[in-house]
Amino acid sequence: MLLPEAVLNNLGVSVLIGLVTFCMLLYQYWWKFPHPCYPPGVRGVPVLGALPFFGKFAHKTILQWSREKYGKIMSVRMGPNDAVVLNDYDTIIEAFVKQHLVFSSRPPIRMIREFSGDFGLGFCPGNKKFFEVRNFTSKVLRGFGMGRIEMEIRVSDVAQDLVQVFESLNGKATNIRMTVGAMVCNVISSVVLGKTYDINDENMKEIVHCIFNTFGDKKNSKYVMILTFFYAMRHIPPFKKARKMFLSNITKQLDFGQKEIDEHKKNLDENSPGDFIDAFLIEMKKHSPTDSWFHEKQLLLSVNALFIAGTETTTSTILWAMIVLLNYPNLQYILHKELMTETGEVNPSVKHGDNLPLLQAFIQELYRCITIAPLGLQRTNTEDVEIGGHFIPKNTVILPNIYAVHNDPVIWTEPSKFDIYRHIDKDGKFIHSKKVIPFGVGARVCLGKKLAQLEVFIFLANIIKKFEIIPDPKTNEIPPIHDGLSGAGFFPYPFKVIVKSRRG
Ligand code: HEM
Ligand SMILES: *[C@@H]1O[C@H](CO)[C@@H](O)[C@H](O)[C@H]1NC(C)=O
Ligand SMILES: *[C@@H]1O[C@H](CO)[C@@H](O)[C@H](O)[C@H]1NC(C)=O
């Protein structure tokens, strides 16, 4: 009897020691904050962290946590990563603008790296070679180094094509996502490839589909977003399939880009570059491909990044505008009237801008009220850093809660209300607000900001001037302003509208 009891005791003690060690390890690796001054927040459950508690809109849930308990700078464990979310304007400026050198990088995202290596534009670390290419690209997107065609003319030409396509719908209720997407894609195409496609071109249709399916696919969007934080999930359905779709859609786009680059190489005339690819090929000759990122792989990934970053975001902004106009027919009426009075017989252009305060206010309110990228794009700090009395160890994932800024009741009265007059002063003039930040701020601010703003302005001015936006009479359903697909961005659910020509 003595022996078994000793064994039993030993076993009991071992199990107990094992359990205590396990709990200590779990605490060490999970619930213990990385530093005594690390921002407080939600650690969630082992392995998944706070991911299971986000609900439908992560940005709203996090904002609620921040307001109720943790404060403006809070931590949210995302799967295996420590992440810090900045929930107000001042803190975002404090980090991304005042300490821009520390916050100009992005964390490595394995799913992106699988096809890009370190190269590209949107997800690269913030090293010197990257910034050389970013600065160059920014210059080209402002119209330098690619011939005489002004950016506004490129955009305006495409807007006129869009008007024609809308007219050809003959007032039939239509889901216009592909149409708008194709035209937005044509703007990028005009800038990057130096050409535009017919709306019915099969290549064009396929590419737009692939771009839409990369981040904005109805089923996969959310899974793809989670995979960017937690790539180990890729082995488990439905993440497995989401990743497969993501990568196959990317491959298709890369093949398309490579074909274009090969064509451009064959036909390059160094004395008259006509687009981004030409400009890049010429720039490549000034640099060594080993000492810089001016090489063909980077060119391919830049082309791809511009198409992906520029298409879904801008398309969704235009579609949200249609939804707002459906919800507020009176707004449609006053915007149309302003455009008729101020632009008369000619097509609206940027030079009319100052005379269109209501349209400007409408667009600013659109950017505010409907935040396309509610949590921005992941950043990381390349050094240990202190903000707002909190310590953040280097290589922490940092997310700006842009939605929180756009819905801060200290800045905006009744933030959930769509009200263009909050951006109009007592003399009827437009008030530009620096606290509307749909494109982010700082060293990694949206590279296409200027182009996107130009596009949104020209497209909407033309649409509102020339069409009436009417709900589908079959369902009479008016899509909601505050509900949509939430994943990599905030995109509208599919809907149909009538775009009715005002030409009589
Ligand atoms: C309304 C439309 C758009 C919105 C709301 C938008 C928003 C954003 C946001 C929030 C970021 C992250 C910024 C940050 O980390 O602070 C970003 C990055 C970026 N955007 Fe946009 N964007 C739009 C249109 C475009 C267009 C048209 C292009 C291309 C021509 C573009 C190209 C990029 C690129 C390349 C980046 C990555 C920049 C970097 O990592 O350095 N975007 N955008
Ligand atoms: C890129 O441009 C910024 C702003 O003009 C400048 O501060 C920075 O030094 C440039 N970086 C490189 C690597 O050229
Ligand atoms: C792209 O993804 C969608 C689903 O998101 C899928 O149906 C389609 O087949 C994919 N296309 C390609 C070319 O891989």
Structure description:
- The chain is α+β, with helices and mostly antiparallel strands.
- The chain has a single domain, classed as Cytochrome p450.
- The chain contains 16 helices and eleven strands.
- The strands form four sheets. It has a five-stranded mixed beta sheet.
- A hairpin with a 2-residue loop joins β5 (385-387) and β6 (390-392).
- α6 (151-168) packs antiparallel against α7.
- The mean pLDDT is 93.
- The structure holds protoporphyrin IX containing FE and 2-acetamido-2-deoxy-beta-D-glucopyranose (2 copies).
- Residues 210, 213, 217, 220, 245, 248-249, 252 line the site of one 2-acetamido-2-deoxy-beta-D-glucopyranose.
- The site of protoporphyrin IX containing FE has 29 residues, from α5, α12 and α16.
Question: Which key terms come to mind for this protein?
Answer:
504 residues, alpha+beta, Cytochrome p450, 5-stranded mixed β-sheet, 16 helices, 11 strands, 50% helix, 8% strand, binds protoporphyrin IX containing FE, binds 2-acetamido-2-deoxy-beta-D-glucopyranose
| C-alpha end-to-end distance | 102 Å
Note poorly predicted spans. none
Strand residues, percent: 5-15%
- Strand order of the biggest β-sheet: 1-2-3-7-4
CATH superfamily: Cytochrome P450
Question: What is the domain tally?
Answer: 1
Q: How many whole angstroms does the radius of gyration measure?
A: 25 Å
CATH topology: Cytochrome p450
Main sheet: strands, sense, barrel: 5 strands, mixed
> What CATH first level would be assigned?
Mainly Alpha
Count of extended strands: 11
Seen as an oligomer or otherwise, the chain set is single chain
Bound molecules: protoporphyrin IX containing FE, 2-acetamido-2-deoxy-beta-D-glucopyranose
Order of SSEs: HEHEEHHHHHHHHHHHHEEEEHHEEEE
Number of helices: 16
Overall 3D shape: globular
Proportion of helical residues: 40-55%
Secondary-structure-based class equals alpha+beta
- Could you report the average pLDDT, rounded to the nearest whole number? 93
Cofactor: heme
Transmembrane segments: 7-30
GO molecular function: heme binding; iron ion binding; oxidoreductase activity, acting on paired donors, with incorporation or reduction of molecular oxygen, reduced flavin or flavoprotein as one donor, and incorporation of one atom of oxygen; steroid hydroxylase activity
InterPro entries: Cyt_P450, Cyt_P450_CS, Cyt_P450_E_grp-I, Cyt_P450_sf, Cytochrome_P450_fam2
